[in-house]
Amino acid sequence: EAQVTQNPRYLITVTGKKLTVTCSQNMNHEYMSWYRQDPGLGLRQIYYSMNVEVTDKGDVPEGYKVSRKEKRNFPLILESPSPNQTSLYFCASMGLGALFNTDTQYFGPGTRLTVL
Amino acid sequence: DQQVKQNSPSLSVQEGRISILNCDYTNSMFDYFLWYKKYPAEGPTFLISISSIKDKNEDGRFTVFLNKSAKHLSLHIVPSQPGDSAVYFCAASDLAGNQFYFGTGTSLTVIP
């Protein structure tokens, strides 16, 4: 089954304690991306990656890091989480030929992060 | 600064009637527009898209209309069904398709 998986699904942590949210896709997609969803703000793009070792900032990259060492994985790293990073996070992937076809990004189920 | 806006946080429609969800954007460089549907506790799923060279795209019960001069697009669902009850996000991308900008979402409730 084609899917994007994220782990963990729920996480409660404390300010300053480094954490990583993993994202993996099994569709051999070149493009992967991270978003956060906040009430009244919709989904905002954090980082994206066009392929292995190619990453770029989205709209709200501050406080986040990413890496793309393998095509299937795109972890999101919070080196020193703060309460304003409490949010619902989504990972997504897309084949680069998809944008102008009838299909586009596949999203994971989300990770709800609370930073105390 | 929100480049894609959905000014109606919620919408209720009777089953069988038409649902019209609206979206406005500010960036004239946007070239591709998408609608996603999201159920609680799930990630968004792609619904329908339109490129800037078209003004209408239809897929079954779903039709997206694009008015470039007004920087406005809308999603029509006809007929609406209870299973359509979800949050709908409008999104936009430039021609390169690297970055995506989403609206704040409209929660649609279809009343049986």
Map the helices and strands:
The complex is a heterodimer of chains A (116) and B (112).
Chain A (H helix, E strand, L loop, with lengths): L3 E4 L2 E4 L5 E7 L5 E8 L3 E10 L2 E4 L7 E2 L9 E3 L8 E8 L11 E2 L3 E5 L1
Chain B lengths: L3 E2 L4 E5 L4 E7 L6 E7 L6 E7 L4 E4 L2 E6 L4 E6 L8 E8 L6 E3 L3 E6 L1
Describe this structure in words.
The complex is a heterodimer of chains A (116) and B (112). By secondary structure, chain A is mostly beta strands. Chain A has strands at residues 4-7, 10-13, 19-25, 31-38, 42-51, 54-57, 65-66, 76-78, 87-94, 106-107, 111-115. In chain A, strands 2, 4, 5, 6, 9, 10 and 11 form a seven-stranded mixed sheet that branches. Chain A has a four-stranded antiparallel sheet with strand order 1-3-8-7, with no helix packed on it. The termini of chain A are far apart. Chain B has 112 residues and is mostly beta strands. Chain B has strands spanning 4-5, 10-14, 19-25, 32-38, 45-51, 56-59, 62-67, 72-77, 86-93, 100-102, 106-111. The mean pLDDT of chain B is 94. Chains A and B meet through strand 5 and strand 10 of A and strand 4, strand 5, strand 9 and strand 10 of B.
